[in-house]
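Supplementary notes for students who missed Thursday's class. We covered one full example, reproduced here. Read the sequence, then the structure, then the short commentary at the end.
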Amino acid sequence: MSQATEKTTQAILNANCDETGKLNVGVGTWNGTSWIASSLDYAVKVTEVGAVTYLGKAKPGSSQASAVWQAKKIDGSSGTVITFADGNANFDNVATDLTALSYS
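Structure (token representation):
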């Protein structure tokens, strides 16, 4: 009797072969509908207000006024709490004023 091996959705989606049969494992972001391939290098914007740090990241060359940024809030005032703009990790925010976004 064989034992089934469970794989995570991430492992299944990231595992694929190219036309030569080489296994490729990608890095990506789930946007709620599909995986978006991404690089490990990002443009980064950091804003600090007291014990709170706001961190925005996007593809290099992205305008801060374009809705292509992922934004997170790192609140160190009572332990460390990390939340995301709009309550998700999508790259769909503007970074002109990271403090003005709604985080949860």
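Commentary. Residues 43-100 form one domain. DSSP finds one helix and eight strands in the chain. If anything here is unclear, bring it to office hours.
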